[in-house]
Amino acid sequence: MGIEDISVFLEPHQDIYFPGQAVMGQVKVQSSSDTSCRAIVVEFKGKAKVHWSVKEGDNTKHFTSREEYFKFKTSLWSSRSSEKLSSGNHAWPFNFQLPFNIPSSFEGTVGYIRYSIKANADIPMGVDHKKKIFISINCPFDLNCSDSARVPLVIQTSDTSCCLCCVRGPVDINVRCVHSGAVVGEGYRVRGEVTNNGSKEVGSTVVALYQHVTYHAE
User: 42 lies in a domain?
Assistant: First the structure.
């Protein structure tokens, strides 16, 4: 009896949204009978959270931090005096405008940046009916605006280690890239030179690309 289902639909549905874009859709409620309900509310929120713990002897120290980028909330339907939500299928449209200065969605090992849309049916003296969905935000960064991205990447190293089975002499490695910044899908060309000044053979040289993420918390 009462509300049987509440759902959130995006119309039109997109896999990825961009800052400044409109996020539109509908909240749908299916009720099998007239139901006491204060309001049907939809909330659009963008937030970030990090948390990790460090063991120090017998104690555990926790580090955590949160950021909220925006929070939009609107009432789609509200009761008047003793008015009930009638039985049947109901649908209410919503439309939110994404801010421009927001970061991209992110899921990490100890933190995340998430954007969610939550619908809530406020039931007096009862359990609220809720539904939450998540959307992905992509905020492209223009490398043309970054002076550091144009700077060539140069790595120089010299390995002078030796053992009883080799003859002294360093192995010099010089790696150079045309620029330090690159975009998704770009062929990032690395030019390297290895100079073996010793008598021991160099078996192989490997170049690897890593992503480093830094989390900040108190």
Answer: yes
Whether residues 63 and 164 share a domain: the answer is: no
Q: Which residues are paired to 116 by β-bridges?
A: 45, 134
Domain count, the chain: 2
Distance between CA 117 and CA 133 in Å, rounded?
5
Give the tens place of pLDDT for each residue, 14-71.
Answer: 999 999 999 999 999 999 999 999 999 999 999 999 999 999 889 999 999 999 999 9
Give the pLDDT mean for 171-198.
87
Q: What is the rounded CA–CA span in Å between residue 194 and residue 177?
A: 15
What's the pLDDT score for residue 157? 83
Among the listed residues 136, 101, 100, the one whose alpha carbon sits nearest the alpha carbon of residue 115: 136
**Checking DSSP bridges between strand 16-17 and strand 129-137, what pairing results, if any?**
parallel
CATH for 90: 2.60.40.640
Residue pointed to by tokens 């990490």? 108
* Percent of the chain with pLDDT strictly greater than 90: 59
The residue range of the domain holding 147 is 143-196
What residue ranges in the chain does DSSP mark as E strands? 3-10, 16-17, 22-31, 39-56, 59-78, 88-97, 106-107, 111-122, 129-137, 153-159, 171-177, 191-196
Residue 218 lies in a domain: no
Q: State pLDDT tens for residues 148-170.
A: 888 988 988 877 655 544 545 68
CA distance 87 to 8: 19
Does residue 161 share a domain with residue 120? no
- Residues 133 and 149 both lie in one domain: no
